[in-house]
């Protein structure tokens, strides 16, 4: 029984050693390819890849590239072409048709800008300020009771909008991450729950804050502030180049 275990362990160790040697050899080949001169790499092209490179060069020149510009663009591709050629992957499979690759080189797609968390939070906060402002304004205008009984102080409105903006932006960005990078749902909900509890405590405390510090404004003033916040949000998004939203 012990002999069988030793044999299995020995075979496993030998297999691991072979795999390690293969990886090292592969890394050496890759390093050699990516450090090679472009002219030497051209000599290693298969007939199929050589034809692809020739057609790609011609297409780029037809698209107003100079010969030097076309050569430089293709030289940058050669290491990847050779590395995949060794694996049996031709350039047509790697890059697609010549016309497509030439278009990609001539008109490269800019990587999508990642909007910073703080900017998305401000964007969402302005949105909530506009929504809450419109709500409190409507209550203040149409309610028969006094504004002080039905409305919320301006300081409360500002802090609420900021807290909702940051909380919901955080939650939404976590949920948008790839599944493997997404944090534990219970942890995220825990943060959200803690934020909501803090928000309710804040609302309770704000009831005892003097009106001098947290004045209740006229309903029409809230409506005007809502419009200003919505317009400010539009300008802020344009200035920051924001295309995504921190809140669904």
From TrEMBL:
The chain crosses the membrane at residues 117-142, 154-173, 194-213, 219-236. Residues 1-31 are annotated as: Disordered. Keywords: Membrane, Transmembrane, Transmembrane helix. The keyword Transmembrane applies. This is DUF1129 domain-containing protein. It comes from Companilactobacillus mishanensis.
């Amino acid at each position: 029984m012990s002999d069988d275990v030793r044999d299995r362990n020995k075979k496993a160790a030998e297999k691991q050693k072979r795999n390690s040697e293969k990886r090292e050899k592969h890394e050496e080949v890759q390093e050699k390819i990516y450090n090679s001169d472009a002219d030497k790499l051209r000599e290693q092209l298969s007939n199929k890849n050589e034809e692809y490179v020739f057609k790609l060069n011609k297409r780029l020149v037809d698209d107003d590239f100079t010969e030097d510009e076309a050569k430089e663009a293709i030289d940058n591709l050669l290491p990847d072409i050779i590395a995949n050629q060794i694996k049996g992957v031709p350039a047509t499979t790697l890059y697609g048709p010549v016309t497509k690759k030439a278009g990609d080189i001539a008109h490269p797609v800019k990587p999508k800008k990642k909007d910073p968390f703080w900017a998305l939070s401000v964007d969402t906060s302005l949105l909530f300020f506009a929504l809450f402002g419109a709500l409190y304004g409507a209550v203040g205008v149409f309610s028969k009771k006094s504004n002080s009984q039905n409305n919320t102080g301006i300081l409360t409105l500002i802090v609420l909008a900021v807290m909702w903006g940051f909380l919901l932006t955080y939650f939404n960005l976590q949920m948008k991450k790839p599944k493997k990078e997404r944090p534990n749902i219970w942890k995220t909900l825990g943060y959200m729950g803690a934020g909501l509890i803090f928000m309710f405590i804040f609302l309770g405390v704000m009831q005892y804050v003097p009106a001098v510090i947290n004045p209740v404004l006229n309903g029409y003033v809230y409506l005007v502030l809502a419009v200003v916040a919505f317009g400010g949000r539009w300008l802020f998004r344009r200035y920051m180049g924001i295309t995504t939203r921190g809140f669904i």
